[in-house]
Design goal:
The chain has eleven helices and twelve strands. The chain has a domain at 95-307: TIM Barrel, CATH 3.20.20. By secondary structure, the chain is of the alpha/beta class.
């Protein structure tokens, strides 16, 4: 019986010594060695802290995480980033005069005289707008119109070389912006050259938008889907290639369009512009933007009355 008791006592002591040994090993692992200097311990602590900061999830850009996880189709992603949906932008009701010009000449140009606004008259118009608190806008500014008190759009159709020789110097003088709706087949054909287009675009004063490839009646060719697509899509791509900037708007040649043209325009653009009709409002259909035509015979007093 004594032998059994002694065996139990020895067994219990063995268990106690074993547990103490385990505790000593754990302490050595979790605590820095007494042989390390304070500087070494501090350096290790700083390194661990920095490592923790580097791997925090919030340091990884959220956009990268979204792209990596969803892997969107490239074409759809690019379209979404360059052409925001008008449905996502709620604009207040605001009148915005969108003036329509073509070209400019001080002397009598002969045929189609009314298309050639005198540079001296155009300068009077720009000076009036500048001195009366108007903000010169392009369609890049459209979704910010709630924050613009008196927006005005100056648009030029076709792409005449006088837009560079006569109009551009006036824009530089007053720091005014215009939009040129460019017909692709007019480039270098006695009209604007690529060098002129690039210089004006890079100035930030001229935004180039589309006026199709060949200036056809879009309503007349609307039954030919391939032709209509070519006129709308390729003109957009060519201008973007030249300027390096997204093309958002189309001016219908001669103001002619129908429902088919409007639906096809929506595939490539955010805006479609008409030829006449008067003052536009932000609540109107963005694919039927109204414009006010300015002719050679439009004097400054008449212009003031059209501004609203």
């Amino acid at each position: 019986m004594k032998i059994v008791k002694i065996g139990v006592i020895v067994f219990c002591c063995a268990i106690i010594f074993f547990e103490l040994y385990i505790l000593m090993i754990s302490k050595d692992i979790t605590e820095p060695s007494n042989n390390l200097s304070n500087d070494t311990i501090e350096a290790q602590t700083q390194k661990e802290t920095l490592f923790e900061l580097e791997i925090e999830p919030q340091s990884i850009p959220l956009t990268n995480l979204i792209i990596d996880e969803t892997e969107p189709d490239t074409e759809e992603y690019e379209t979404a980033t360059t052409m925001p949906s008008t449905e996502e932008t709620k604009l207040l009701s605001k009148n915005m005069p969108v003036f329509m010009y073509h070209t400019s000449s001080e002397n009598n140009p002969g045929g189609l005289t009314e298309l050639y606004v005198k540079p001296s008259e155009f300068e009077k118009q720009v000076q009036y707008l500048s001195e009366n608190g108007f903000t010169f806008c392009t369609f890049d500014d459209y979704f910010n119109l709630n924050n613009i008190d008196k927006p005005v759009f100056l648009t030029f159709d076709d792409g005449y070389k006088e837009n560079y020789t006569e109009i551009f110097p006036i824009l530089q003088k007053y720091n005014a912006k215009i939009t040129i709706f460019l017909t692709i087949n007019s480039i270098n054909a006695s009209d604007l050259t690529i060098d002129m287009i690039v210089e004006m675009s890079d100035s930030g004063l001229v935004k180039f938008e589309s006026h199709t490839n060949t200036h056809p009646s879009l309503a007349s060719i609307s039954a030919n889907d391939a032709r209509l697509t070519d006129e709308l899509q390729n003109s957009k791509l060519k201008i973007e290639e030249i300027t390096g900037k997204p093309v958002l708007a189309l001016a219908y040649p001669n103001g002619e369009f129908n429902d088919t043209v409007k639906e096809k325009t929506k595939e490539f653009y955010l805006f479609g512009l008409r030829k006449d009709l008067g003052m536009h409002n932000t609540k109107y259909n963005p694919y039927e933007v109204q414009r006010i035509r300015i002719n050679r015979s439009t004097n400054i007093e008449t212009f003031k009355s059209l501004v609203g």
